[in-house]
Amino acid sequence: MLPYARPSITEAEIREVEDCLRSGWLSTGPRTERFEEALAAYVGVPHAVATNTGTAALHLALLAAGVGPGDEVVTTPMTWVATANVILHAGATPVFVDVEPGTLNLDAARLEAALSRQTKAILPVHFAGQPCDLDALLAVARSRGLALVEDAAHALGASYKGRPIGSVGDVTMFSFHPAKNLTTGEGGALVTADAEIAGRARRLRYHGIDQSPENRFGGRGPAAYDVVEAGFKYNISDLQSAIGLHQLQALDDRNRRRAHLASLYRSELDSVECVRPLEEAPYEHHHAWHMMVVRVETDALSTDRDGFVQALRERDVGAGVHFVPLHLQTLYRRHAQEADLPVATQAHREILTLPLFADMRDEDVGFVVGAVNDVVRAHRRRGA
Ligand SMILES: *Cc1c(COP(=O)(O)O)cnc(C)c1O
Questions:
Q1: For a designed S-S bond to 57, which of 83, 89, 188, 308 qualifies (C-beta 3.0 to 4.6 A apart)?
Q2: Residue 175 C-alpha to ligand 1 middle, in angstroms?
Q3: Which pLDDT tens digit goes with each residue over 89-113?
Q4: Helices (H) and strands (E) in the chain, counts
Q5: Among 55, 81, 232, which residue has the most ligand 1 atoms within 8 Å of its CB, making it the best to mutate?
Q6: pLDDT digit string (tens) for 26-39?
């Protein structure tokens, strides 16, 4: 079975982990420091704070941006559950705004209507690795004094109008889960140009201990640490950072490979009826191609989306579904009406994710598209 995602791991990562193990320093240490420096430099911002998961980084990003009890955070339903769960963990309430039909990114034109006096932050997701319209989101954020916190779990290496994702909003989160473009096994990071946000995130990442040199109880001497708030245990280990160091060096090559495979997909899918890739956003951008999401015109077929995915799996194509929109989950039903999110609701009936990862061969694309075509032909309604 060809999986929808698979991490690329080479001898370089394996050797670095081995060296880390032999060094005796396994938890947050010198390799994490190097990884954070390299990541900040890659994105082009002064600060990166690495964590044990992307979810943890997003939780810290919200807290460090000042989100707390009573606040509302405007976000998209087309995302992984972590995006909204951390809003609840911060004591705030998610407010869902519908997505654009072409890109499945948060629809900036619908943003204003979702704002209230409680709104504290806007939390967009760069769906599948394609940047949201950040200028439009920033204009709203700046005019209303809101924080722009980006979930860029899919978008490391992407850029918007020449600016790397991570260098535009107030604080941006990346995930290093094994399915993502860069992996550390599990892991994540936030990046920011704001020293205060970085400092607060760093403190919250490790129990709320103030390690800044200005704190006279922190950062000096072996027994000098000062807990100033109830933080978390969200630090990344050097074993994880060891992997990340080499993943980062290979990232641009691997993302280029993804883009090449995606363009093969798009040209080969051109001749397949009833199946079309998501659309390219009209503004200048560079797509990270984290996932190859397509829409299936199920109205013209005698099977539904789940049946289509199952039929692909029977043909050894490990298709997936990203994502079941959050407003259809039991936990979030009370936060939105299906009727208010018609685009996401309709997309849910049509989207599926085809295999896409850097180590896939060009021939694999032909194999997948052949299977997709097969399933369409087997289920095509007469006259449709
Ligand atoms: C993967 C993912 C996350 C969470 O990252 P983890 O590293 O798995 O905690 C958050 N948001 C989106 C959109 C994701 O795809």
A1: 188
A2: 5
A3: 999 999 999 999 999 999 999 999 9
A4: 10, 15
A5: 55
A6: 999 999 999 999 99
